[in-house]
Records
---
Amino acid sequence: MSILLITDTQLGMALKNVNSEQWSPKILKWLENLEPSEKELQNLNKILKVINENNFEFIVHAGDIVNEIDKSNDLNNYKNFINKIDIDIHHIPGNHDVGLDPNNLSKEGLDFYNKNFGKDFYNFSWNGFELIFLNSSKFMNYSNQEVYFEQIEFIENTLKNFSPGKRLIIFMHHPPFIDKKDILKMGSDRIHEKDISYWMFEEKIYTDFFNLFENYSVDYIFTGHLHINLETHFNDTKIIATSAVGVPLGDDPSGYRIIDFENENLSYNFFEI
Ligand SMILES: [Fe+2]
C-alpha cells in the first residue's frame, strides 16, 4: 500500500502570475492555450484519475492548496476536488494557506486554514514509521513566538512517546535545509534566481529543529514549496521536494509522487501528469 503525495495545487497562481515579468513565458507555455484556471482544474482532474486508477492508502497534500486565501472561488474548486475523493487526504499548510501575504503567517490565515482543513500539525503511525505533519511557516515566521513554541512543544511531547531511534517521516511545506551542492548538481546555485537561503529555514532555526530529533531517526522529510523536484539531505535525513500539481517553476513538469514501503524498503518516485 502506498501514499500519494501532491503539493502546490495553488489554485489561482497561474492567473495571478500569467502577466508577470518573471513567470509569464513559463506559464504561457504550461497553459497549452487553456485559460489559467482551466489548466489548474485540468491538472486536478488528472490527479483524480490517478487516485481512481490506484489503490492508495491515503493522500498527503504538502501545502499551498490555494494561492490567495481570500479567493473563495479557488477554495470552492479545491473543495469540489476533495469531495470527489473517497480516501483520506491529510493536508499541511503552505505559506499561501496561512496568510494573505504569503511571507507572513497571520492569525486570519491560520483561522482560514484551521476552519477549512483542520489541524496544522499532527501525527500518526504508518508501517512502523511515525509520520509527523508540521506547519513549516511557523519556523519561517519564528518571530511569532507563541505559535512557534506551541508547535515545538507538540514535537517534544510527541517524541516522548517513542523509544530512542524511532524512525520518523516528516511532511511539511518548506524544506528546513537545502545543501548548496545539490543545487549545483542541477546546474545552478540558486533556485528561481533566489539564493537558497530564501527557500529554507534560517540556520539557527534549522539547527534547533534538527536538535529536537537528535535521539530519533528522521529518515525522510517530504516537502513542496519549490515547484521543482529536489533531493538533498541534512546528516542522515533525506529531504525530498516534489514539483507542483499546479504551475511548475523549473524544468520539472507538474506531477505527483508515490511513496511506497515494501520489503522494508521505502521508494518515492515522481510521475508527470
Ligand atoms: Fe509555498
Note: The mean pLDDT is 97.
---
Amino acid sequence: MKKALVLIPVLAFALVLAVGLSAQVKKGKTRGALTKQLMGGLVRPNCAGLGAALKKEPADDKAWAALATQAALLNEASYILMADGRCPDGDWKAACDTLRGCSKAVMAKIEAKDLEGANTAFKALTGACGACHKKHKK
Ligand code: HEC
C-alpha cells in the first residue's frame, strides 16, 4: 500500500510530462489551432495545389499570381509552426528552416516566371514534410 502511494506522484508527474511533450507538437501553448488543422487546412492544400499547378506552364499572370499565393502561404506556415512554443526540438526547427528557405526560393522563381526553377525549389521544399513527419508525426 505504501509503495502504491509513493507511485502516485511519480505517475502523475510522468502523465504531466507526457501530455506536455505531446501538446507541444500537437498544439501551441496559447493559440487554438491544432497542428493537425494547420496541416490539413494550410500546409497540405497549398503544397498539393502548388505541386499540381507547377506541372504545366501557367496560362497567364493570374495563374502565376495564384502560384505565388500558395508559395507565400507555405512560407507563412514555416513561421506559424515555429511560433507559440510549438517547436519541440532541432529536427522540427530544421524542417521549418527548409520549408521557409525553399518556399522563398519558389516565390523568387515564380516572380521570375521560371517554371523549371520553381519545380526544383518545390522538390526541395517537400523534403521538409518528410523530415518533420519522420520524427514527429505519430
Ligand atoms: C515542422 C514539422 C512539420 C512539417 C515541416 C510538416 N508537417 Fe505535416 N504534420 C506534422 C505533425 C506533427 C503532424 C501530426 C499532427 C497530429 O496528428 O497531431 C502532421 C500531419 C500532417 C498531415 C495529416 C493531417 C491530418 O488531418 O491528420 C498532413 C496531410 C500533413 N502533415 C502534410 C504536410 C505537408 C504536405 C508538409 C510539407 C509541405 C508538411 N506536412 C510539413 C508536422 C510537420
Note: The CA atoms of residues 30 and 126 lie 28 Å apart.
---
Amino acid sequence: MTTPQPFSYQSLFAKNVPVTSRSQNPRVKYDFAVAYPDPDTLPLDALADALRQALDREGRDLAYYPHPAGHPPLRSLVAEKLARDRAINVTPDDIVLTSGSGEAIGMLIQAMTDPGDVLLTEEFVYLGTLRQMRRYGADVVAIKCDDQGIVPEELEATLKRLLGQGKKVKFLYTIPTFQNPLGWTMTLDRRKRVLEVTQEFGIPVFEDDCYVDLRFEGEDVASFHSLDDTGRVLYVGSFSKIIAPGMRMGYVVAPPEVMERAMSFKAPSGVNQFAALTIEEFLKNDLYPHIDEQNQSLRVKRDAMLASLGENFGDAATWNKPEGGLYVWLRMPEGVDLAALQEQSFSEGVGYYNGTMFSPDGSGANLARLCFGHPSAQTVSDGIAELAKILTRHGALGG
Ligand SMILES: Cc1ncc(COP(=O)(O)O)c(C=O)c1O
C-alpha cells in the first residue's frame, strides 16, 4: 500500500479565479432588491399548453443535441420579433440563442477583452455585467449620465482622455431602455449623438435591450441597432423579463466575425431545447397578450411605489418616474449611507440594493435601486412605508 500525498486544490486552480458565492439572498417580507417578475403573473397555463403541443410535434427530436446556435425556428421568430418591435433587420443566422442574455453578455466580453482593456458603461450598471467585466480583467470606466441618458460630451471627453493615455477601449455597453438600475430611457437625440461619438472614435456600441418590452407608458425609442447601418452595434435580448428568468433563454445579434469568436465562449451544444420548443410555441400566439397583461400590472405597482414614496419620504429624497421596466432609483442626500444600512434593512424585512453595488468606481452610497416587479401593489406600498420606518429608526430619515 502506498501512502497518499497530502493534497489541496489550492495549488491546482487556474490563475486569478475569483471565489463566487452560490447562495441566494434571504427571502424577505418586502423584497425590492431582486429583479424578478411577479410569480402571480407568470403565464403558466399557456406555457404548459405550448410545451404539450411542442412535444407532440417535435418531442422525439429531444433525442439529439440541439443546433449549436439554438433551435432554428425560434431564431426565425426572434428575427421576426426584432424586425417588428425594434426595426432590426437581421436573418436567423445572425442570431445565437443563449442561456439567458447573461451568457450572451459573457460571450461578448470574453471575445473582446484582454486584461487591462477599457470597457465603457453608464454611470451605474447592471451588476451581472459589471461582475463579468471585472472577472475578465477589464478596466471598467463609467460615463456620466443625466435623466436623458449618457451625456455625449462626457463620453467624448472620456474617450479623448483614455485614448490620449494610450488605453485600448473595446466598446460602450449601454442599457438604453429602462436602464438597470437607473430606470430612465435614453432619448432618441442622445442615442444618435452617442452613436456619432462612438463612431468618430471607432468603437462599437453594445446594446442590452432586455427591458424594452416592459413599456406601460410613453412611446418606444428606436434601438441603437436600427440607427446604425455600419455593423457597429452588438445587441442582446432576453425572454427573462417577458416570460420568466427560470426559462433561461436570451439571444445575441452580432456580425459574423464577432459571432465566430464569441461562440468559443458559449457553453457547448446550443441551448436547452426543452425551453426553446416551449418558447417557440408560446411566441406564436400568446406572447403579446401576456406582455400587455404584465405591463398593466407593472404600471399599478410602479404607481403604488411612487405614491408610497411620496407619502413616506416626502421631500427627504428624490426619485424618478420610469415609463416601464422594473426600477425606481432613490436618491437620498449626500452623507446618508444606504450601503451601511442595507444588511440591517434586510434583517428587518426590507431588501434593497444600494448604489455602490452598481457603480464601476464604488460611489453611490446614498442611492438605492428599488424594484417594483416582484411584490404585489399592496406589498410595494406597505414595504416602502416599512423602509421609511427602518431608515428613520437608524437615523437616515427625518430627525
Ligand atoms: C440589464 C440586464 N441585462 C441582462 C440581464 C440578464 O438576464 P438573463 O440572463 O436572465 O437574460 C439582466 C438581469 O436582470 C439585466 O438587468
Note: The domain at 24-43+289-393 is CATH 3.90.1150.10 (Aspartate Aminotransferase, domain 1).
